[in-house]
Specification:
alpha/beta
Length: 255
């Protein structure tokens, strides 16, 4: 329990220090310098969280990091420490997150300053406009981390994907790199407040190119990415994912 208290206090201090720096960079610096400061803030924040928790990260498939090219990194999601682990190893990126997180004091302010894109998922028109804006940035070389399951799961089996991230990838003509994070749940599962030390594995899988895809083929892209991630979970960790790659209501609408 002492580690959890240490984590909470330290991360409050770290977030309070980094948030104003990120906001100031966004307001005052040119694009090149702003990006460097934002990336430094996000890396520092993530690595501080891992250090406080006593969590180490093992990166597999580093060769699949796309340098100098806008990329969509599609990750499973079972813990807040998925975010910390991914943010600690990718060189340049931002996150797409649900709008509710924007309302968290200090964190939301700092995350927006650092370039995180918040989506109001219940407002389809607003979410679509935000995705279009992100697609433009990805075409210009920005990489984005998304969690297509939509929210954290309580175990590692892969759940159905939402279509938004894959429509984004197609619109941006960007490759999708499947990402599987394993071990974050043991550090802090969904619904828990206690943090335990542990080792987190981040697997970057071969990119799925979107050349030749259009909106009508979004389900095919979703299935390819989902299948790649599910296969790794099965073969490496013995975790079966028996659900479909995307929600039934999405499939029915496209039928």
């Amino acid at each position: 329990m002492l580690r959890t208290v240490f984590f909470d206090v330290t991360m409050f201090v770290v977030t309070s220090l980094l948030a104003p720096i990120a906001v100031a960079a966004r307001l005052l610096l040119d694009e090149e310098r702003r990006t460097k400061v934002q990336q430094w803030c996000m890396h520092s924040w993530a690595r501080s969280a891992l250090w406080c928790a006593g969590a180490s990260v093992v990166l597999h498939g580093e060769e699949h990091i796309e340098h100098g090219r806008g990329t969509i990194y599609s990750s499973n999601h079972v813990s807040w420490f998925d975010v910390f682990a991914i943010a600690s190893v990718l060189p340049e990126y931002t996150f797409v997150a649900k709008a509710e997180l924007r309302r968290i004091p200090i964190f939301g302010w700092g995350a927006e300053g650092a370039g995180v894109v918040f989506l109001a998922r219940e407002n389809r028109k607003s979410a679509f406009a935000a995705y279009q804006q992100v697609a433009d940035s990805v075409r210009e070389g920005m990489s984005v981390v998304v969690c297509p399951e939509g929210t954290r799961g309580r175990d590692y089996h892969l759940r159905p994907f939402k279509k938004g991230p894959f429509v984004l990838a197609i619109a941006a003509e960007a490759p999708v790199v499947p990402v599987v994070v394993y071990g974050a749940r043991e550090v802090m599962p969904k619904g828990a407040i206690r943090i335990r030390p542990g080792r987190i594995h981040v697997h970057l899988l071969p990119p799925v190119e979107t050349a030749g895809y259009d909106y009508d083929h979004r389900h095919e892209l979703m299935a390819r990415v989902w299948g790649s991630m599910a296969l790794l979970l099965r073969d490496t960790y013995g975790i079966g994912s028996d659900e479909q790659p995307y929600a039934p209501d999405v499939a029915e609408k496209s039928a």
